[in-house]
């Protein structure tokens, strides 16, 4: 048997329940691996791996409406360590930046008094990671320094701002969703507010889905479903405000850029998701729900794959993956997996969904009743489709692990992340890569965790008997909470987890009294009938077995309601007090009724049992009698030979057997009537005797409650007066509290502890009865925004409060906050979170996981890690190890770095090996390298290889061409085709210009120019001169086109960079230039990124990695003094062993 250890010092905590409607959007899953969720004015920190709450933050006075974890997109070292930092905004306009580990507020910000609309930490520059952007109603965006609370700048707009979204590929671009449309900002920077009011566009209502249109009689081949919606929604974004009849702007629920590909945005409507190409301002994809389908409430786009997590109104989460087709006519997102729905009622509704940003294969659903459902996406092998015409392209599992080909004996973590579960989907009809055998997989959701909250208030709480030296070996700090639905929840306050849930009553539980450490009595009363009578339920519950029975037997129907139950100090007797009926006295041990008082018995307003009894004297008398009996049974001769220890054992046995029998000790209680007179009653066995009567105190009103401990008796009345009686000194002292009705008073446990907890209508207080003075106070409307429903002592120095916001709080005696240091928390399951460690320990652990040069094999003796077996695998390369550890740590910067580094280190190593093997034969041109087994994901944009980047851009312009619906669209497509070198198709589009179009003549001439252009010297010089003049006169795009037509794309890139179009120059270099020329352009871009004005060295490092400038990268990383990147040069020298000429260094 495992020995049970008792944690005597319990940590402060909050047991949360149902959510407020304002908490609906207050949830975030951070790179740190933890979930933050707002619950009324508190914030829960949840570990999704173990499904337990590890911290509760309390300082807000209003409901929390937004929470946002800080980003981890910076290089970590001792001066910039891993930290758990969270920003939260409430309904009163206050923003608090938290140090989550210590549970303290690092910074408080207040600008206006209206609810915060949106929050986001800036991640796009290396100078500061403390910048926090907030939307303050109605129309302000404010940039704050989240470390100091300083306002950096403030900008107002014409419309009310609902939310915003940053372009993940270009942080100078952001979109504001307003009450009338969308405002696009292209000059966002942290140094100053946007100079312009942005480009305002309007949203045309997508009323073309099957849910919004009545089916008309059409031909048999008429399009239906999503295709019908796509055909009708031709232009979604317009510069002119649409008519009121054609627009329902409030239907737009969400706006978000797609992190999987540049210049794409999604708009969420209740019955469709619209995918926009921002270069065309055109809808290129629609996910529409049929008429019988369940509407959307939220969508989260993925970065690792072009996929969408969708939340529906019934709580169902669906995953839709973009279909790959050879000639796409539209973007189609196929349903690949869905989880089970929940039962939706008036009080139970799905609120929000979040996904893990590190792996993108875990989702959490927040339900209005306080539940958190944790879903994990799993992949399993499937047979090839028997019906290839079904339209679904197969999903294949990648043949690599952590960016490297999987070895024959290498261990692999299944379902590590979304991009390790499904590879880049093959285009329909395309053959798999040679020398690979991809496994077709299917996806499914699996419920891996569930957190349940408290039900709706009110609550009746009662702490189990206190810890003593006699019960220390088997004591558990259990709190019983009776609920409005008749169930009793028993929580273990050491862990804060639900110990047992018992369905005991059929109506609201009114009170609970423990009769032992493992059993309790609870009572409930039904709604009164016409005569004011109710059905009373008094149940005895045994916790270990869950058995419960009606303690009063058949009694309870059609009688006055029970007001209170009181159990005696020795748990022998029970008093049941009714509203308009004399009290009953029961023997708990036998379950028998000792006395039902006469009808003329006074009406009880307050009652309490005395802690004094005669049990000790009874035991002494019985032990003396047993000892005498034992001695009489032993003769004088034998008595001398019997050891005293034997007699002692015999006496102990007799004593225990007697104790197991019913020993009726004398106990007594006091109560008051409506006049304030105090009555004293003594109970011993079956005997009930009346004692002294004390006349009422004239200074006291009607007595509402009594508490008794030692020689101190305290009475509280309905007027807010406390009367302290010193029974030993026969003194009384009245003290007015001016707080109104004293609802309940309880003494703290522990010998000599004379602290008293008092509950009022508007709060609670702790009093020291020795000094007769207040120790601490809590008041609704002054320092808290919740009302107290019930109180009790948790330990001798902590109180437990039930409140009307659905929470139960364990607080220190000062009653200030339930937040605590996380390292003081006693968790049931260990939590893997390196952010909880001190900086030096976190980096030591990271170095330990990355490299152990003192040993030939890796060991994991420090701690238990989920990936232990894989990290110990000798087949795991250092590159794979670095990528795995960065994912394990949730290090956003490291993960991007090692993803790019791993890909290009292997790619250039393959090129080096191939060049050596073909040295005697045909050699490759300088700077080229063969494509790896799978190209880099397109979410890395211009960091991808030129071949895959060109293919994506060609596919995109083909889709744009299909979707063009105006001359402006056609012109943009023609321009893109010219830059991509597709001159023939560009000429066709230019010749489509109508004769009545003002641009007809120019487009015709341009078509002739493109068709007849030659590479002769004079024509080249003329065109270059014209292009230069056009650029000098502000026609940058047109001049760049002309330069590209005469194969002067390198000059075009230089002009673009000169005029600040760095992203456009990088795009052009990727699609047109040779690797050597493109490398020069991208190197200049990297230098620009490193400049003090831009300060994006981390992005510059990624650009240099994509060029193979590994030693240059190593020099830059040396200045950051980080843990992971210190292994970079070692990888170059030891594992990859690729050396290049100075051009690549």
UniProtKB/TrEMBL annotation:
<dbReference type="GO" id="GO:0005930">
    <property type="term" value="C:axoneme"/>
</dbReference>
<protein>
    <recommendedName>
        <fullName>WD repeat-containing protein 11</fullName>
    </recommendedName>
</protein>
<dbReference type="GO" id="GO:0031410">
    <property type="term" value="C:cytoplasmic vesicle"/>
</dbReference>
<dbReference type="GO" id="GO:0060271">
    <property type="term" value="P:cilium assembly"/>
</dbReference>
<dbReference type="Pfam" id="PF23751">
    <property type="entry name" value="Beta-prop_WDR11_1st"/>
</dbReference>
<keyword id="KW-0206">Cytoskeleton</keyword>
<keyword id="KW-0966">Cell projection</keyword>
<dbReference type="GO" id="GO:0005794">
    <property type="term" value="C:Golgi apparatus"/>
</dbReference>
<keyword id="KW-0853">WD repeat</keyword>
<keyword id="KW-0597">Phosphoprotein</keyword>
<feature type="domain" description="WDR11 second beta-propeller">
    <location>
        <begin position="476"/>
        <end position="816"/>
    </location>
</feature>
<dbReference type="InterPro" id="IPR057852">
    <property type="entry name" value="Beta-prop_WDR11_1st"/>
</dbReference>
<feature type="domain" description="WDR11 first beta-propeller">
    <location>
        <begin position="20"/>
        <end position="318"/>
    </location>
</feature>
<keyword id="KW-0333">Golgi apparatus</keyword>
<dbReference type="InterPro" id="IPR015943">
    <property type="entry name" value="WD40/YVTN_repeat-like_dom_sf"/>
</dbReference>
<dbReference type="InterPro" id="IPR001680">
    <property type="entry name" value="WD40_rpt"/>
</dbReference>
<dbReference type="InterPro" id="IPR039694">
    <property type="entry name" value="WDR11"/>
</dbReference>
<keyword id="KW-0968">Cytoplasmic vesicle</keyword>
<dbReference type="InterPro" id="IPR011047">
    <property type="entry name" value="Quinoprotein_ADH-like_sf"/>
</dbReference>
<dbReference type="InterPro" id="IPR057854">
    <property type="entry name" value="TPR_WDR11"/>
</dbReference>
<dbReference type="Pfam" id="PF23752">
    <property type="entry name" value="Beta-prop_WDR11_2nd"/>
</dbReference>
<feature type="domain" description="WDR11 TPR">
    <location>
        <begin position="966"/>
        <end position="1113"/>
    </location>
</feature>
<dbReference type="Pfam" id="PF23753">
    <property type="entry name" value="TPR_WDR11"/>
</dbReference>
<keyword id="KW-0677">Repeat</keyword>
<keyword id="KW-0539">Nucleus</keyword>
<keyword id="KW-0963">Cytoplasm</keyword>
<dbReference type="InterPro" id="IPR036322">
    <property type="entry name" value="WD40_repeat_dom_sf"/>
</dbReference>
<dbReference type="InterPro" id="IPR057853">
    <property type="entry name" value="Beta-prop_WDR11_2nd"/>
</dbReference>
<dbReference type="GO" id="GO:0005634">
    <property type="term" value="C:nucleus"/>
</dbReference>
<dbReference type="GO" id="GO:0048513">
    <property type="term" value="P:animal organ development"/>
</dbReference>
